[in-house]
Amino acid sequence: xxxxxxxxxxxPVPAGRPRLPxxxxxxxxxxxAEVLAEIRETCPVTRVRTPAGRPAWLVTRAEDVRAGFxxxxxxxxxxxxxxxxxxxRALDLTLVNYDPPDHTRIRRLATPALxxxxxxxxxxxxxxxxxxLLDAADAARGRGPVELMDAFARPFAFRSLCEVxxxxxxERAALYEPVALLADKTGRTAAEVDASVTRIDAxxxxxxxxxxxxxxxxxxxxxxxAWREQGGASEDEVASLLAxxxxxxxxxxxxxxxxxxxxxxxxxxxxxxxxxxxxxxxxAVDELLRWDTPGSFGTKRVxxxxxxxxxxxxxxxxxxxxxxxxxxxxxRCHADxxxxxxxxxxxxxHLSFGLGPHYCPGSGxxxxxxxxxxxxxxxxxxxxAPAVPLSQLAWGGGxxxxxxxxxxxxxxxxxxxxxxxxxxxxxPPCRPR
Length: 433
Known about the structure:
By secondary structure, this protein is of the alpha+beta class. Helices cover about 45% and strands about 10% of the residues.
């Protein structure tokens, strides 16, 4: 429902049409906070062209972003309803392709199985996984650095998911390959991506058949029990729901772990305080999620009607990006947002998990994983140091999902002053709109 056809970024602009700004290009993943702060404080609702060459509206102030998440006129499906008669593989369509009420009838099958209380039942096994991985990383490194993403964050997030899904040990290595490929498609061919979707589809349907015959106390069994009791979804929709929970729970959590450690390495005084008072870690997790997030924007939406934000009207048919990262650093919502404060009273109002009908269903598991990971790291590494300056870390992915490829850390690094890091900024003082 775009109002303009796709064009190549940087292509000549037709006579009489102004060129749209392109702030989300090559440098954005390295300094999103700086780019978004300037937009939020100077032109909080603005029209840009994305790196894909399409026009979109950016909404950047916390009040407007929160309103946008709750507004049913901002559609994820573009007003289209998927045809239930069409057979699809898991992941061909996911929850982000549906609006309520279809979104609601599918999502409700998983919501009771993903509560924080349900996730807490897996805590002991998740803690054991974290300890074993860090033991192995410490043993393997000698006196060199630990590459935290490959040695810990990725395998820990995957093992946590396997515990919640109760994936048999013998099947885990084969499952990791398609999960990791779909999480990061960089350099992969369309055929490789398609084959990985097919493998995930086969895995999920196989697990559905196995748990139907022999239910357990795992996520798949609970979703199937809710489906049998409530109905309201096709087998394809249930398979896609489970596949989405498996895949969405992987890379976003991996990146949140990496970003949290980067923030703490840049603030050694906060690392030390939390290591001395581990009871403060669960609350600090919300502040770290506010501080930096892999998804600078919520999933792109389409305005079904003209929608007003402040003095600006976004026309019907327009693409809309709600800026989570800009809202998380809006000084109107969070006082002194450029300070990392693990005791911040407003930290839980961050929007890194979204808001409203599309609030992340796996947030309980993500919080548990982050709490366990940080508790283990802070408990054993008292004076860590980055093996390279934080300003030299390589960021990849794109404007919708930033990705840290590697994070080499010296667990027994020297005491040091904070190193340069691309810290989020509150921007200039508020100006009335």
